[in-house]
Amino acid sequence: MTAWTRQQAAAAATTPDARLPVIGVGDVAPIDPARDLWDMWQIMRADGSTAIVDGRQWWFFLAVPRAADPEARHDAARIRLYSRGADGWRDHGAAFPDGFSPGSREWSGSAVLADDAAALTMHFTAAGWRTGGPRFAQRLFETCGRFDHGRLSGWSEPVETARADGLSYRVADDDVPTDDRIKGFRDPGYFRDPATGREHILFTGSAPGVADVHDGVIGLATRGADGWALRPPIVTAIGVNSELERPHIVVRDGLYYLFWSTQAKRFAPGIGAPTGLYGMVAEAIDGPWRPINGSGLVAGNPAAEPFQAYCWWVTGEGEVISFVDYWGLDGGTPAHGIGYRRERFGGTAAPVFRLAFAGDTVRIAAVATANRAA
């Protein structure tokens, strides 16, 4: 278990070379004009490489029909499939049938395509309960279906994988946020360790029995003969940050790069780190982990537009995608009102960029335009 310290995180406030360019009007091209899209993950192979089928990449997004207030999207989120190719993006419909999820909505996860290019395993978060109950309850599920050139079918009954035990991980069953925060047990990110062949799930968690609201951890579960078994958190941010979201690992040159996203407002007072993509590096999944670039910051929103993008996802090829959040605010904030939020919420893919890896250093290598062809 590795602690992300306050001193390390605070250093992220003074690393200008890790800041992304300002998103402009030419960068905000809707993938799906009828819907708001956000958190995304690609269909990948078990080795972490992006699956290319019919010359296209295949991406799942959280999606909802456009509504008056973009902030309401989390209460209606569904997973939807899109593909990206030489002609841009295409919509392939909802991932699951209506009523399939064990929750009241679906939150983020990961997807793995088998060697036959047909069997697809989806790990996802069921938020809430199908029959009601705590609004922010979170559970991790796995289901297997068939992927047929963009058509999804035959999903198995969702099976709960790792369960919060109240010992290593706090049970996430909040009915309402506390201080604009909810406890976490979500975002299952699949990883097969090339050194051992063992399968793991990383996830966003909260530490139990901690008085500080800044209690974020990155959790780990490992598949064994009897199913998925919880293991202790691999990274903790006690007293530093309350949400280390959508953790995932990319292996490069024998090193394990652990990435996650977090927002400036989730840091403890006085740290001053930006909303961005953060990470640590190690020689093995059990660590010890070292903050990338000394602070953990890999790519942050620019000071001029601190809300412009969120939820960065790094592919096995080192390409990074995220979504356009609130852009073009020019000093404003999303708190200015519903109409203001609607006008300035992107709800589409942000400009794609690539990373350059060199040991404990990871830099932004090149930034492309949003929604370009693969």
UniProtKB/TrEMBL annotation:
<dbReference type="GO" id="GO:0009758">
    <property type="term" value="P:carbohydrate utilization"/>
</dbReference>
<dbReference type="InterPro" id="IPR023296">
    <property type="entry name" value="Glyco_hydro_beta-prop_sf"/>
</dbReference>
<feature type="site" description="Transition state stabilizer">
    <location>
        <position position="187"/>
    </location>
</feature>
<comment type="similarity">
    <text>Belongs to the glycosyl hydrolase 68 family.</text>
</comment>
<dbReference type="GO" id="GO:0050053">
    <property type="term" value="F:levansucrase activity"/>
</dbReference>
<protein>
    <submittedName>
        <fullName>Levansucrase</fullName>
    </submittedName>
</protein>
<dbReference type="Pfam" id="PF02435">
    <property type="entry name" value="Glyco_hydro_68"/>
</dbReference>
<dbReference type="InterPro" id="IPR003469">
    <property type="entry name" value="Glyco_hydro_68"/>
</dbReference>
<feature type="binding site">
    <location>
        <begin position="243"/>
        <end position="245"/>
    </location>
    <ligand>
        <name>substrate</name>
    </ligand>
</feature>
